[in-house]
Every structure is written in C-alpha cells, then in structure tokens.
UniProtKB/TrEMBL annotation, chains A, B:
It comes from Arachis duranensis (Wild peanut). Keywords: Ion channel, Ion transport, Membrane, Transmembrane, Transmembrane helix, Transport. GO terms for cellular component: membrane. It is a multi-pass membrane protein. It is found in: Membrane. The gene is LOC107461973. This is Aluminum-activated malate transporter 2. GO terms for biological process: malate transport; monoatomic ion transmembrane transport. Belongs to the aromatic acid exporter (TC 2.A.85) family. Pfam families: ALMT (PF11744). It comes from the Eukaryota. The chain crosses the membrane at residues 46-65, 77-95, 102-119, 125-147, 159-177, 189-210. InterPro entries: ALMT. Its main location: membrane.
Length: 446, 446
C-alpha cells in the first residue's frame, strides 16, 4: 500500500513537472510572439532601440579611449546614465526632458554651491553645520516634492523637480565631507550636458521620430475610424448583411477614440518643443488638434449610444422600412465625409474635397427630417418603434457633430496654411477665399 | 524732435517695464494660489512631502555620521539617490518600484560580473576586449529598450528594464578600467537595498497611503457623481427650477467619470502589491473594481448623450407633461440607488440597502413603458416630440445600466466578504443567503 501510494505520488510529481515545463514552454512561446507585436505595430520602435544602443555604445568610448577617460576626471559614468535616462522616443519628449534635466542641474548645482559657502563661512563647527544643512535639505525636499503635485508643474516640469532634488543632494552633501564641492558641481554639469547633447544629436539626426507627426497622424486615423464605425453601424442596423465580418470589426473601431484624450494631450505637449520638420512650421497650431480631438470623442460617444440600440432595432417594421434608405445614405455620406477629412489632414491639403459629402449628408438629413415630419407614425405600434426613432434622431446628431468637426478641420487648415499641392483637386468655390468654406454655408440641424 | 521721440521711447520703455513687473507679480500671486490647491484637494500630499523630506534627511546621516560614512566605503550617495527615486505616493506604487529596482539591480549586477569574467579570461588584449564589451552593451541595450515597448512589460516592469540597462552599464564599464568590479557590484546592491528598505519602512509605518483604499474611494465617489448627474438631469430637463445653480454643477459631475480608465487601472495595478490594510485582506478582488468602472463609464456615456437633448426638450409639450412625473421619479430613484451603492462600497457593507430604490426604479420604469405603450401620441406633433421620446428611452437604458452596476457591486461585496456591521441595517431578505440578492430578482428591461 505504502509503495503504491508512493508511486502515485511520484507519478503526480512527474505530471506536475511535465505540466510545469509544458506551461513554461507555452508561456515562453507566448512571450516570443508578443515580442514581435510592438515592431509590427510600429517599426520605428525597432529603429529607436538601435538608436539608443548606438548612442550608449558610443558614449562607452569615454571608458574605452584613455584620453577621453582622463578628460572627464576618470568618472564619465554620469554621461552614460544621462543618455540612458533622457533617451525618449520622440524628439519633442527628448527636448522637454533634456530641458528639464539641464535647467534643474544648473539651478540645483548653483543652490548647492550657495549652501556650501553659507555653511562654510557662517557656521564653523561640524554639528551646527550638519544641523543647518539637514534642515535646509528637509525644507527644500519637502517644498519641491509638494510642488510636484501642482497640476501645471506635474504636466511639464515633474522630471525637472525630481532632478533638482537629486542634484541638490548630490552637490551639497559631499561638501560636508570636505570633498571639492566646486569640482563635483562642475563635473556634474559637464557630464550631464555631454550626455544630453549626445542624445539630442542622435535623436534629431538619425531617423528622427516626431511627436507632432504622431499627433497629426493620430487625429487623421481617428477620423478614419469614426468614418468606418458610422458606415459599419448603418450597414449593421439597416443594411444588407454582405461582408458582415469586416463590418463588425469596423463598427468597433470608434472605441479606441473614446480613450485617446491622454495620449493626444501628451503628444501636443511634446510637439511644442519640436523644431520645424516636414510640413510643420514653428508655431504649428497643435492646440487645434486637441479641439478636433474633443469633437471626435463627442462623436464617438454618440456612436457608442447608437450601438446600444442595435439589438432592439433588428426586427423589421413599417417605420424602419420607410427610413431605412435615408439612414443608410446618411451613415454612408457622413462616413465618407469623415474619411475625406482624414485624407485632407493626412495630405495637409485644405478640406475642400470633403465638402460635397458634407453637403450631401446635410441634404439627406433634411430628407430624413421631412420623412419624420410627415404623418409617418399613423396607425403603427409606436412603442416598438421608439428605438428606431431614437436611432434616426441620434444619426441627425452625428451629422451636426460631423459638421462641427469639418469646421474645426477647416480652421486647422487655415491656421496651419495647408495648400493644394495637386492642381487637379481644385477648390469647389473658385471665387471665394478658402477660409470662407464651411463657415458661412453651414445649415444647422436641431 | 529727436529729444521728444526719445522721451516717448523712454516712456514706452517705462510702461513696458511696469507692465512686465505687474505681469510678473500677478503671475507670482497666481502661482501662490495654485500652490494651495493640491493640499486642499488631498491633504495627504502634504504629509507625503514631509515623509520624503524626513527620510532623505535621515539618510543624509550617512554623510553626517562618520562611522556610517566609512561603513559605506565613503560613497553612500546611491542610498540617497535610491530613496529619492523610489519615493512614490502610495505603498503599492512604492513596493512595485522597489521590486523592479531591487530585482533589476541584482540581475544586472550578476550579468555584469559574468561579462567581466568572460572578457577577462577569454579576451586578453584591450582592443579585442573593448570591441567585445561594446558589442555586448549594444545587443543588451537594444534588446532591453525594445522589450520596454511590449504592453505587458510597459505596464508593470518598465522601470525594472530601465534600471537593468543602467546597472549593467554602471557595473560592466568601469571593470574595463581595472576598477574592482566585485566591489562596485557589491556596493551598488548594498546601497540600493539600504535605500529601498529605508523608504519602504517610512512608507508603511509613517501614515501609510494605500493605492487600494484610493481605488475603493474613487469607485465609490464615481457612483456618487453619476447619481448626482442623473438626478441633476431629471431636475434640469423636467423639473422645477429651484436651486438650479447647484444642479448645473451636479449635472456636469459625470464628466470626470468618462476619463477615469487610466487612473483606475494604475491604482488596481499598485493595489495588488499591498499587504492587508483596513478592511482589505490579501487577495481583495481589485479586478472587480475595474469591471464596475467599465459599467460606470457606459452609464456616463448614456448621461452624456442625454445632456445633448437638454436644449431640444426645453419647450413644454403635451407628451412632455404626460411623462414628466414618471421621468422625474426615474431619475430620482436611479440617482438614489446609485448613491446608496456608493455608500455601501464606502462603508464596506453588502448593498442590501440599495435594493428598495432599485426595485422602485424598476417599477417606475415599467410605468413609463406602459405610458409609452398607451395611445399617448395620437394627434400630437410627432416630429417635435422625438427628442423627448429619445430621452425617455435613454432613461430606460440608464435604469437597466444601473441594475447591472448593482449586480456588479453585489458581486464585489460577495467576493470581498463585506459584512453588516450595523445591526440596524438588516438585509431585506433575511431567509436567503446574501449572494442571492439582486441576481435572481432582476427584471430585465428591453
């Protein structure tokens, strides 16, 4: 009995081992597959990794080459640490971080020096000096840590305040142990500036990645997604079932737009630091992208409410048959105009090309309104038709939201001075200046 | 002429100076006022600042006390740097960061040591050695930087990977210059562990700030906000105008719920690191809070769509008069039940107390449906009444969303084993076990 139970225990053990190793291998394979994804989503990540590796290997030369090693007082480690810490993905994020690190280092070093001379000249004894320096550190650290909670500081200078605390401690404390303070401060400033300069050069010269370009593309892609979603909704709710699989995934595209606020704001924050690049001049209206983003999220929220009615509007009814055609047309034209706005941002051309679709969607919306105004409901089961009526009403809201988006995109094109590069795409209103488009021709619904 | 223009220029200059200084002073006053706000919003921020200052001043003792200074080979700076870098606001965030920093330091030090012995034993010459070490650094930095883009790693181990790169460079590079590698690695591990231990102790012992508690309170507060918003909407759309000012601000309360995803996820991420505290045992169902959060955002999206109809439902109409009473009741009862759910989470008691309101709101919703089903619309101007019909329909959606939220909160109370502390608040169903509540009694709408 004992031996048989031992055998069972042994088998169990083996099984457990196998399961453990199988699980381990399965997990490893899963991890490997996940490792491929970031590069597939955005190949620039691979390039960024090589850029960081390249610049760190290059600054390693401060150790490998004896002359350089001696130049930096045999302690070039902070150059390497700085490069590792400021190597951000985009040029804008890099410049913001470098500015923070550089300014904070200079200011904190100066303050550290000041404290040293104060402690050294006024206080003589070691105990009085240590109490004074301790109190000073306490006050400065408490103040700086507290100030990092102020929203405006947290958004832009959080890293600077952290580096300030760090540098102040690094410079002021060793002075107490009679190390050469001026030397420490000087070395720290020089090493950090060397590191910062190194990464800024690599970041801008070797395949630069621009936060501004990312923001531009993100807003354009979000417009495209909303266009897909609204067209997907029209097909799903009213339309034919052809190609339903692809439509289903299209319909869900709007969901990522709902949560895009944070990424848009941080990209706009970084974009302001970037020099001119590509079609973006200095002073490009980055804030206008945030305004468009707010409207896009409003539109996404409407689409979210619309999709909530998909199930309750599946059954065919008399009223549904009557509005079906017009609703499909609305979702088609609105989707088309959103996509055309997306293309106009993508190509940095004025959004004239989008106007025909917007005009069409307005006309179709007026048609829908007149259908709704006609004695459509007489003798029908009204309660069951409330969902379909709600859907038509929300669709009208989507049309007016799209108009606002079009105006906002137009404003962007004026502020950023988008120009028609392709002579074939002539503006629709040859006799009026481009900034008249879409502003005076708006027919408001509601 | 020349002198008069000089005078003008001078005056202009003076004016400019005055404006500059006035602007400067105004700006400074503004900044001072903004400095008060973080502490007013959350007084724990002030406490956190003092905690950080206290622990950094304490570790300064490694410089002030000669015995301690000698103990750490006259270089205790990394203890201070570590405390500054890991001093996060909540215990969970601290433990997550300390785990990352500690593990990465040990692993990278070990790898650095391995590389050193490889370079030292196999490669003899300086040039071959430097090429080998350079290649190794390139490969490791590129791999680690790339891996930080994997979403799962970015969410939990981003800081660990950064510290790994940093430590590997700090340990492996000086070895090339014949410094004592083992000593560097040992010193780095000891200093970092001392710093980490220091902050963990202060963080847990001196007025601990728990991410879990924050998540718990955030979800409870968001429930409260949605309750306020839906009641505010009912008053604004259908109700009396008394106390309109306060209702307006109530109505907007839901907006912050829409953007709460990121903060909830990071708090849940940190909460898992925290030991038992207050009513939260080890293994508290933090993920359930995220599920409730998703439902809350759905509900907020519905309220957002509802507020879009405020303007178009202002004019009184026959239909509005007929549904007015019921709609006010729905918004009142739904708001009340959301607030009662909020209280039940806040007090960690089972959400029995919320059931009466939910039952009432269900009954009122049925009433509304029967009103809608009756021949209410005969002979009215249907087109103008579409908005009010849409509003009633969306309100029914809010009721069913509230039911889902109630079920989810109930599930949380079962998983977290909430108990009735107050004997006066007896469960409504004394003969059935608590996990039967709200699950089998749901009357689904739609």
């Amino acid at each position: 009995m004992a031996s048989s139970s031992e055998v069972i225990a042994d088998t169990n053990n083996n099984n457990n081992n196998v399961t453990f190793w199988q699980r381990f291998v399965a997990k490893m394979v899963g991890v490997m597959l996940q490792l491929k994804k970031p590069a597939q989503d955005d190949p620039r990540r691979l390039i960024h990794s090589f850029k960081v590796a390249l610049s760190i290997t290059t600054v390693s030369a401060f150790y490998f080459v004896k002359y350089l090693f001696v130049c930096f007082d045999k302690n070039p480690m902070w150059i390497i640490i700085t490069v590792i810490l400021v190597s951000e993905f985009s040029v804008g994020a890099t410049l913001a971080k470098c500015f923070n690190r550089g300014l904070a280092t200079v200011l904190a070093s100066a303050l550290g020096l000041g404290c040293y001379y104060l402690v050294d000249s006024i206080m003589g004894g070691h105990i009085v000096g240590s109490v004074f320096l301790g109190t000073l550190i306490f006050v400065i650290v408490a103040t700086m840590t507290y100030m990092r909670f102020v929203p405006q500081i947290k958004a832009k200078y959080d890293y600077g305040f952290l580096v300030f605390i760090l540098t102040f401690c690094i410079v002021s404390l060793p002075s107490y142990r009679d190390e050469d303070l001026l030397d420490i401060a000087k070395r720290r400033v020089i090493t950090i500036f060397t590191g910062v300069l190194m990464w800024i050069l690599v970041s801008i010269i070797v395949y630069p990645i621009w936060a501004g370009e990312d923001l531009h593309n993100l807003v354009s892609k979000n417009l495209q997604k909303l266009g897909d979603s609204i067209q997907g909704f029209g097909d799903e709710c009213f339309g034919t079932s052809e190609g339903e699989g692809s439509n289903k995934s299209n319909l869900q595209a709007y969901k990522s737009v709902l949560n895009s606020k944070q990424i848009e704001e941080s990209l706009a924050n970084f974009a302001r630091w970037e020099p001119c690049h590509g079609p973006f001049r200095y002073g490009h209206p980055w804030k206008q992208y945030l305004k468009i983003g707010i409207l896009l999220r409003q539109c996404a929220c409407l689409i979210d409410s619309l999709t909530g009615f998909l199930d309750s509007t599946k059954t065919p009814s008399e009223i549904k048959n009557k509005v079906q055609e017009t609703c499909i047309q609305i979702s088609k034209e609105t989707g088309k105009s959103l996509k055309e706005l997306s293309v106009s941002i993508q190509k940095t051309i004025p959004p004239c090309a989008a106007n025909p679709s917007i005009q069409k969607s307005k006309i179709v919306a007026m048609n829908l309104k007149s259908i709704l105004k006609s004695g459509l409901w007489e003798g029908t089961n009204l309660f069951e038709d409330i969902p379909i009526m709600t859907v038509t009403y929300l669709l009208l809201d989507v049309v007016s939201c799209t108009q606002k988006i079009a105006e906002s995109v137009h404003e962007l094109s004026v502020q950023a001075k988008f120009k028609n590069k392709d002579s074939k795409v002539a503006p629709n209103y040859p006799n009026s200046p481009p900034h008249d488009l879409g502003v005076h021709h708006v027919i408001t619904i509601n």
